[in-house]
Amino acid sequence: MKFHRHPHTFVGQVYLKVANLERSLEFYQNIIGFQVLTKSAKKAVLTANGTTPLLSIEQPENVIPKKPRTTGLYHFALLLPSRNDLARILRHFIQIRYPLQGASDHLVSEAIYLADPDGNGIEIYSDRPSAAWNWENGEVEMATVPLDAENLLAEGDGEAWTGLPSNTLMGHIHLHVSELQKTEEFYIQGLGFNIVNRYGRQALFISTGGYHHHIGLNTWNGVGAPAPLENSVGLKRFSLVLPNKETRKKVIEQLQKIGAWIKEENDIVLTKDPSGNLIELSV
């Protein structure tokens, strides 16, 4: 979990738009295991430890379903502290018979995939020790092979699932984008991330501090895919936690140099990637 604290830049909180707040709350509490930090008529902030916000869900006015083949969220990924924790939640999904979309071994991690009631993608994963990751020419080796679920469940400690562990983190976010060339410039030259893996010509994985990825970017919804409508369910924005205000100032200057959209108001700094994905730069 060392890759999600100072001095690295990492994803802090994800903000989602949903069609029905109460339906989503039931899912995120009972199926995923979040706690409610704050709640109003149209918005709720969710936490794993009772104090740190990880996910915000909001029901916009005149909300509409997200149209297919647009930019935005592919999935957000919750990082569990241990393989035992992953085994517990997998057993929980099996017991309640919740439909999964996949389960993969990525060499650097093991992951379970599912979606919320609005189709927002979710990955729940645990990392293998970073000393076991294989790096070659500055890129980390990753793959997508079937998860050995029997081995995972057999190695679990058998303890009952009681919700998300308190030290669960927002491990990474994976986005649909409309193209990769300007996107790479924005995230590398602008935000200061490093490329750690190129997946052909269709996806890019980036991080700081030698993590396997804090952000994934892909064009799997098609090159030139449009942004979703403002009142569509899906991603509203996500926050990046920067080490300090000096780093944020440097990032703002880098973004200005490449002509990126930036808005500063009351110590809140927002920017947009070339596909319209909104990012909050926090410290």
Q: Report the major sheet.
A: 9 strands, mixed
Would you list the SSEs in sequence order as H and E? EHEEEEHEEEEEEHEHEEEEHEEE
User: What is the typical, i.e. mean, pLDDT?
Assistant: 96
Strand order, largest beta sheet: 11-6-7-8-5-12-15-14-13
Structural class comes to: alpha+beta
Secondary structure tally: strands: 19
The named CATH superfamily: 2,3-Dihydroxybiphenyl 1,2-Dioxygenase, domain 1
User: What would the principal axes of the Cα set say about the shape?
Assistant: globular
Keywords: Dioxygenase, Metal-binding, Oxidoreductase
Pfam families: Glyoxalase
Protein name: Catechol-2,3-dioxygenase
GO molecular function, one term: metal ion binding
Description:
- It holds the Pfam family Glyoxalase.
- The chain is globular and about 55 Å long.
- The protein has a single domain (2-282), classed as 2,3-Dihydroxybiphenyl 1,2-Dioxygenase, domain 1, CATH 3.10.180.
- It has helices at residues 21-32, 83-96, 149-155, 181-190, 245-257; strands at residues 10-17, 35-39, 43-47, 53-58, 72-79, 102-105, 109-115, 121-127, 135-136, 139-140, 145-146, 169-176, 194-199, 203-207, 215-218, 234-241, 262-265, 268-272, 278-282.
- The protein has 283 residues and is of the alpha+beta class.
- It has 5 helices and 19 strands.
- The mean pLDDT is 96.
- The strands form 3 sheets. The chain has a 9-stranded mixed β-sheet. Strands 2-3-4-1-16-19-18-17 form an 8-stranded mixed β-sheet, with helices on one face. It has a two-stranded antiparallel ribbon with strand order 9-10.
